[in-house]
Amino acid sequence: MQRYEAKRAVIIGGTSGMGLATAKMLLEGGARVLVTGRSQAGLESAQKELGNGAVVVSSDARSLTEIDVLASRVKAEFDTFDLLFVNAGFSLRAPLESMTETIYDEMFNLNAKGPFFAVQKLAPLINRGGAVVLTTSVSNVKGMPGSAAYGAAKAALRSFARTLAAELLPREIRVNAVTPGPIDTPIFGKAAPSGDIAVRVTKQLGDINPMKRLGRPEEIAKAVLFLAFDATFTTGAELPVDGGWSQL
C-alpha cells in the first residue's frame, strides 16, 4: 500500500515551486490531488508535469467569488478530502516611502484575506481528522526592509493558524503553518527585472542564511506532509523551514 493511498488533497497555489513539489510527492504516494493556479501557462505546465492523476484548476486565490466556485469544484471532484494546503502567496517589495494603497491591499488580499476565506469555504469538506497547512514566511517574525505589508499579512496568517486551529478542534481538524525562508523557486525569476539580478539576489540570500544555501521546494513539501499526516498531536503550530534564518 502506498503511503498516501486513498488520501485526497487540495493545494491552493500548486502549479509551481513548493505547491507543485508537494503535489508530486502526494501523487507519488498514491493520493488524489487538485491544484489551483492563475496563469494559463502555469496551469498547462503543471498539468503536463503532474499528469492525468491531478486535477488542475484555474482559480484566483484573492477572489471570494472564485473561492466559492473552487469549493463547488472540490465537492464535485472529491466530495470530501483530507488535506488543504493554502500555499498561494507573493511578495511585492515597497519601502515605507514607496508604499501605495494598491500594493498594501494586494499583499493583504493574497496573503491573508484569501487564505482565511479559503479555509472558511473548504473546511466543511475536510474529513474529520484532516488537516490544514498554511504557508507563512520568515517575514512574519523578521523586520525585513521593504516587506512591511507582506510581513504583516503573513503575521496575520500565522495568527489565523492559531485561531482556526482552536475553532476546528471540535471536528478534529488540525491547522498548522509551514514557514519557509529563502527557497529556490521560479518566484525569484519572476520578481527580478533581469536574469542577472535574479542570480545575484539568490546568491546573496544563500550567503546570509546560516546554512549558506537556499532551501529546495522538496524540503518544504516534506514539512507540509509531516504536518498534514504525521504530526497528529500538533495543531496551531508554526514549523520554520528556513535554514535557521529565523532562529540563529
Structural class: alpha/beta
- Count of DSSP helices? 8
Instruction: State the shape.
Output: globular
Largest sheet entry: 7 strands, parallel
Tell me what the structure shows.
With 248 residues, this protein is of the alpha/beta class. The protein is 46% helix and 17% strand. The protein contains eight helices and seven strands, in the order E-H-E-H-E-H-E-H-E-H-E-H-H-H-E. It has a seven-stranded parallel β-sheet with strand order 3-2-1-4-5-6-7, with helices on both faces. Strand 2 (32-37), helix 2 (40-50) and strand 3 form a beta-alpha-beta unit. The longest helix has 22 residues, at 101-122. The chain starts with 7 loop residues before the first strand and ends in a 7-residue tail after the last strand. The mean pLDDT is 93.
How does the SSE layout of this entry go?
Layout lengths: L7 E5 L4 H12 L3 E6 L2 H11 L3 E5 L5 H15 L2 E6 L14 H22 L3 E10 L12 H21 L5 E7 L6 H5 L3 H14 L8 H14 L7 E4 L7
Parallel strand pairs: 1-2, 1-4, 2-3, 4-5, 5-6, 6-7
Helix pairs in contact: 1-8, 3-4, 4-5
Summarize this structure briefly:
It is built from eight helices and seven strands. It has helices spanning 17-28, 40-50, 64-78, 101-122, 148-168, 187-191, 195-208, 217-230; strands spanning 8-12, 32-37, 54-58, 81-86, 126-135, 174-180, 238-241. Strand 5, helix 5 and strand 6 form a beta-alpha-beta unit.
